[in-house]
């Protein structure tokens, strides 16, 4: 539990730092002379460079533990932010955002793997993931408004410098506090490579060798990340006036408050992940439809409801992907999830930037989420890939 508390503290500081940039990046790019299409590519490039980092993280985290990659991500991303404070041209920002995307690609798989490895009990793992979501949301509640406030007082350069030093300090704290290497739960040994017909559910399909249904689950984070990328692109673009940055920050904070409401409902962890995912996808899709079609509904109310649906979705997806992994393979599984989200986060803002003069980007997000809902495999969620006794028998 002590390790979880330390990790939650570092995650809060890291998420605060990252979310504080969301209402800042678009107006900063505009101030450098960037066009909307270029801004879409800039935001997408950040996610595209996640891919090589995610591919490396999956193997390296399982092999070497989480601490060194958490520290690397935080310190490197902080240094890049210090450079970003001195960007003078749009392509400077593009290159720095691409480098930041690679550096931070290691953070999520490393943190999720460390949290999941603290217990072998699926219910306890679900609580850890809900705690991760609560910390993430708490940080995102205050950070967009805080970032906008810092910009108003210190300007873009001062804001990026402040956030960069905060990330570096967090990385140094993590070096001395996060255990290394991350260990498997007591009584479990690292799983050896298995033949295809021995693969547990999720890694090589079910025990009958059927991989079709299992692989479809990785479409979920892709479509969800697409819709989020659309939101983070379009929301700042739709705000006008002298207080546009501040209003964007407040709206994003309302989004996080909605997520915090449902993340605090820990009893939801007892419900099947598949059912929670289906309800959350439907709620998010309807929220985007309202943003696109019903301008008379307050945007803040819609974003609050959208956040509430997100608060149900993300712990459910985490529980699902834990069930698809086995001991010694969680890094790879969360890496695949991060890759899917990186691809989606790249495609979403790029599509929104190219098509916003033709169709509402919010309607694009609605279509993406409804597609994800239709592709959700029916039936009960997979059971845990392998119970402790099974892994002990395999590795004896």
From TrEMBL:
Cell compartment(s), UniProt: Cell membrane
Cellular component aspect of the GO annotation: plasma membrane
SUPFAM superfamilies attached to this UniProt entry: MFS general substrate transporter (SSF103473)
Recorded topology in the membrane: Multi-pass membrane protein
Keywords in alphabetical order: Cell membrane, Membrane, Transmembrane, Transmembrane helix, Transport
Annotated Gene3D superfamilies: MFS general substrate transporter like domains (1.20.1250.20)
InterPro entries on file: MFS, MFS_dom, MFS_Efflux_Transporters, MFS_trans_sf
Residue spans crossing the bilayer: 69-87, 93-116, 137-156, 162-180, 217-233, 245-268, 275-294, 300-322, 334-352, 358-376
GO molecular function, one term: transmembrane transporter activity
Taxonomy, superkingdom: Bacteria
The protein's name in its UniProt record: MFS transporter
Species the sequence originates in: Paenibacillus donghaensis
Biological classification of the source: Bacteria, Bacillati, Bacillota, Bacilli, Bacillales
């Amino acid at each position: 539990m002590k390790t979880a508390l330390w990790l939650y503290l570092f995650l809060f500081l890291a998420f605060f730092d990252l979310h504080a940039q969301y209402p800042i990046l678009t107006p900063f790019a505009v101030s450098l002379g960037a066009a909307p299409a270029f801004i879409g590519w800039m935001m997408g490039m950040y996610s595209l460079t996640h891919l090589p980092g995610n591919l490396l993280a999956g193997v390296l985290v399982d092999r070497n533990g989480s601490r060194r990659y958490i520290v690397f991500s935080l310190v490197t991303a902080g240094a890049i932010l210090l450079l970003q404070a001195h960007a003078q041209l749009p392509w400077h920002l593009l290159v720095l955002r691409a480098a930041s995307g690679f550096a931070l690609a290691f953070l999520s798989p490393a943190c999720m793997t460390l949290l999941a490895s603290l217990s072998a009990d699926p219910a306890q793992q679900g609580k850890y993931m809900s705690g991760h979501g609560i910390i993430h949301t708490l940080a995102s509640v205050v950070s967009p408004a805080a970032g906008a406030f810092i910009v108003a007082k210190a300007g873009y350069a001062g804001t990026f410098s402040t956030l960069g030093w905060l990330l570096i300090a967090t990385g140094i704290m993590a070096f001395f506090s996060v255990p290394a290497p991350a260990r498997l739960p007591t009584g479990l040994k690292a799983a050896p490579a298995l033949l295809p017909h021995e693969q547990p559910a999720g890694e090589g399909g079910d025990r009958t060798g059927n991989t079709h249904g299992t692989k479809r689950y990785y479409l979920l984070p892709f479509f969800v990340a697409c819709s989020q990328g659309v939101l983070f692109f379009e929301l700042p673009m739709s705000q006008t006036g002298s207080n546009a940055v501040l209003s964007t920050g407040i709206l994003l904070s309302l989004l996080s408050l909605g997520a915090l409401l449902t993340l605090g409902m820990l009893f939801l962890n007892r419900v099947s992940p598949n059912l929670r995912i289906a309800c959350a996808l439907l709620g998010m899709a309807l929220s985007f439809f309202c943003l696109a079609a019903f301008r008379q509904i307050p945007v803040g109310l819609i974003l609050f409801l959208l956040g509430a649906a997100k608060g149900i979705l993300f712990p459910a997806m985490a529980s699902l992907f834990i069930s698809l992994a086995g001991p010694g393979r969680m890094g790879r599984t969360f890496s695949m999830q991060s890759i899917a989200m990186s691809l989606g986060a790249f495609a979403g803002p790029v599509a929104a930037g190219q098509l916003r003069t033709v169709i509402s980007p919010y309607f694009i997000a609605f279509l993406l989420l409804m597609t994800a809902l239709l592709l959700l495999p029916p039936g009960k969620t997979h059971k845990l890939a392998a119970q402790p006794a099974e892994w002990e028998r395999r590795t004896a």
